[in-house]
Amino acid sequence: MINLDIEKKKMYDIVGAIHDVHRFLGPGLNESCYQEAMELQLKDVSISYKREMSFHPSYRGIELNATFRVDFLCKGDVIVECKAVPELSPNHRAQLFNYMRLLEKPCGILVNFLPKFDVVERYFYDKESKNIIAVDGHIIKNFQEL
Description:
By secondary structure, the protein is α+β, with helices and mostly antiparallel strands. The protein has one domain (about 5-135). Helices cover about 35% and strands about 30% of the residues. The strands form 2 sheets. A 7-stranded mixed β-sheet has the order 1-4-5-6-7-8-9, with helices on both faces. Strands 2-3 form a two-stranded antiparallel sheet. Strand 4 (about 70-75) and strand 5 form a beta hairpin.
């Protein structure tokens, strides 16, 4: 079972970097601008990351040609997806949840830089139960029910 308290601590300084970028640049720019600034901020605060990390899902142990790309993989197991849209949609969340499941990463952050006040959503993936869990502990999605 996933320990939410430990996983939340992993995200703390990453969320701080997100807030710093948003505070400095403000709302209204395009997604690539925020991603570039986010990369500079992660470097500045010494958070390890990979930007635009590509991966191929597998089917029954065979790697597929389909390619997905996460905006950032921080600290080896925190996926960060950046958006600059008027409002986050269920499709944005589904994208993050699927990345977490396919990569079996326990932490996911979905950030929307467009609003005046930044929107940061944190989620957790428990690979044993196949649950996506909100920061308050309630289950958002169970991938075993598919």
